[in-house]
């Protein structure tokens, strides 16, 4: 779905145009007004698009996954989602989801049949699976912080895991405060992790699928006035390798070298973000009670599994 068709469906579903366009980040955008598509949710998260152009996102408190069809129609895709958070579509066209109720599962978009992929680690459920990214081999990197988790934590630590295509789960990182967003670079040689409990965005060299180095700080996020140590939430990546990290200030755009290129502000604090459309030039943002789009100059990266 290109920018023109995205705009058409916005008007077709009678959604409101919102807010004034801020200064464009050179070579990136936005290139037109930010649009509010739908509102009235509890807390939106986990945006993902399938090969047909359908967009999915989660409403965590209401335990629902919503779908926006290519004609703009909003429907409920799944009730009782396990308080699903992060989503991504795999190479078979299934919706893979992080359930904050403590597992990784997948749902057939065609039949809505659900399969559990990883119910836990070392005999215990996960804390509250949050975000994920699928690599070329079909392996899944995912975060498991403490939000919505029972106390004491089932896993005793907050962590990042790798679920290999053969079903084996490996704990990769256990020294971050609330690891939240996770994404791979376009060449899949770097794994980025955004903790919510610290301002530093982390970068880990991928030695092979599911094996990473000790990592380094890529950048410290810009902070609101009077605030220190505020972290990020979800993120995505464009074709140039720039990161788009949601934060209290908006979507912070960060180069692969760790330079903050600018901040795209939204009417509500964004929680997660992805690129959608046939040309991948539409930024789709989940922001608290609403979802938004921002037409961009740059194209988002398309993962091999998508």
Report what the structure shows:
With 306 residues, the protein is mostly beta strands. The chain has a domain at 82-234: TolB, C-terminal domain (Neuraminidase). It has one helix and 27 strands. It has one helix at residues 3-12, and strands at residues 35-39, 44-49, 55-59, 64-68, 74-78, 84-89, 94-99, 103-108, 114-118, 120-121, 124-125, 132-134, 140-144, 159-163, 169-173, 179-184, 190-195, 200-208, 211-212, 216-220, 235-237, 243-247, 250-254, 260-264, 272-276, 282-287, 290-295. The strands form seven sheets. Strands 16, 17, 18, 19 and 20 form a five-stranded antiparallel beta sheet that branches. The chain has a four-stranded antiparallel beta sheet with strand order 1-27-26-25, covered by helices on one side.
> What distance separates the N and C termini?
15 Å
Beta-strand level of the residues, as a percent range?
A: 35-45%
Number of helices: 1
State the helicity in percent bands: under 10%
What is the H-and-E element order? HEEEEEEEEEEEEEEEEEEEEEEEEEEE
Would you tell me the structural class of the helices and strands? Answer: mainly beta
The description of the largest β-sheet is: 5 strands, antiparallel
What is the highest CATH level, the class of the domain at 82-234?
A: Mainly Beta
CATH architectural designation of the domain at 82-234:
6 Propeller
Q: Over all CA atoms, what is the radius of gyration?
A: 18 Å
CATH fold annotation of the domain at 82-234? Neuraminidase
CATH superfamily of the domain at 82-234: TolB, C-terminal domain
DSSP E strands, number: 27
Uncertain ranges: 7-21
Give the CA-based shape: globular
Average the pLDDT over all residues and give the rounded result.
93
């Amino acid at each position: 779905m290109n920018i023109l068709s995205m705009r058409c469906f916005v008007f077709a579903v009678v959604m409101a145009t919102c807010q004034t366009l801020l200064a464009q980040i050179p070579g990136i955008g936005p290139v037109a007004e930010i649009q509010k598509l739908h509102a009235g949710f509890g807390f939106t998260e986990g945006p993902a698009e399938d090969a047909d152009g359908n967009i999915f996102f989660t409403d965590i408190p209401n335990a629902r996954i919503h779908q926006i069809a290519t004609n703009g129609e909003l429907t409920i895709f799944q009730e009782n989602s396990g308080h699903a958070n992060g989503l991504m579509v795999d190479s078979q066209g299934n919706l893979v989801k992080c359930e904050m109720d403590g597992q990784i599962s997948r749902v057939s978009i065609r039949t809505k049949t659900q399969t559990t992929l990883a119910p836990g680690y070392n005999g215990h459920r996960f804390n509250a699976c949050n975000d994920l990214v699928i690599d070329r081999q079909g392996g899944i990197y995912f975060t498991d912080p403490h939000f919505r988790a029972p106390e004491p934590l089932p896993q005793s630590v907050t962590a990042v895991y790798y679920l290999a295509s053969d079903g084996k789960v490996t704990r990769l990182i256990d020294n971050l405060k609330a690891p939240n967003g996770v994404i791979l670079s376009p060449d899949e040689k770097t794994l980025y992790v955004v903790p919510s409990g610290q301002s530093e965005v982390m970068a880990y060299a991928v030695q092979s699928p599911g094996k990473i180095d000790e990592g380094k700080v890529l950048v410290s996020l810009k902070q609101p006035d009077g605030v220190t140590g505020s972290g990020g939430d979800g993120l995505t990546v464009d074709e140039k390798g720039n990161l788009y990290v949601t934060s209290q200030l908006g979507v912070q755009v960060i180069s692969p070298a760790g330079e903050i290129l600018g901040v795209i502000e939204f009417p509500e604090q964004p929680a997660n973000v992805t690129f959608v459309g046939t040309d991948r030039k539409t930024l789709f943002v989940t922001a608290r009670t609403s979802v938004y789009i921002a037409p961009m100059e740059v194209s988002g990266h398309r993962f091999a599994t998508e």
